[in-house]
Design brief:
alpha/beta; 4-stranded parallel beta sheet; two-stranded parallel sheet; 44% helix
Length: 215
Amino acid sequence: GFQILSALQKVRHEPTIYAIARRDVASSSPKTQCLVEPDSAKWASTLTGLAPRPDVLISALGTTRAQAGSFAAQRAIDYDLNLSLAKSAKDAGVETYVLISSAGVSSKSALPYSKMKGELEDAIKTLGIPYTVIVKPGLLMGTRQDFRPPEAMLQAVARGLGKISKPWLTDWWTQDVDVIGRATVAAALQCSEGKREKGIWIVEQKDIVRLGRFE
C-alpha cells in the first residue's frame, strides 16, 4: 500500500488522496488526508461519508494467516472487508475500483488462500462498478513493511537470477513492489481519464511491467 500511496503523490495534477487506515500514515503531501479508524468494520461507512465522493478506490488490503491468527480471521480481512469496501464504493458512486489480487488464484483451487482470492475476484466482478481493475502480481520483490519467510526464500532466488540475466528471466513471475505501485496508479488513471473502455480489466504480470516500468 505504501508504494501505491507514493505513486499517487507523484501524479502531476495532485489529486486529493484519502488513506483509510488503522493508524496514521506518514505523508509529506498536503493533498493526502489520513483517515484513522482503528475499527475496520467502520471503514465502509467512512468511505460512503466522504464528500466530495472519490472517483477511484484502490484496495491493497491483505494479511497472512500468521498475522491474523487463523484462516477465518485472515478471510475476514482478505475477503469480507475487501468485498464490503467494494460494495460501499459502488454505493458511493465510485467509477473506478482497483483491487490488488495475486497471480494464479482461482475460486476452483484446492488451496484455501488461492480459492479465497479467486472467490473475491469473482464477487468483485459481479458488482458492476463501471471500471473494475484487478491487478495480479506474482512474487513481490523490494522493501516491504512485513517479513514473510516463505517469500524470502523465493526472493533470494529471483535476486540471484536478476544478477546473471536480463529481466525477461524474472519478469514473468516476480515484480518489484515499486513497479506494482506505479502500475496500479497508471491503470487507475487510464480508467478515470476515460482512456479505457468501461468493464473489467485484468492487469496481468506483463501489464504490470509495462505500466510500471515503461509507461
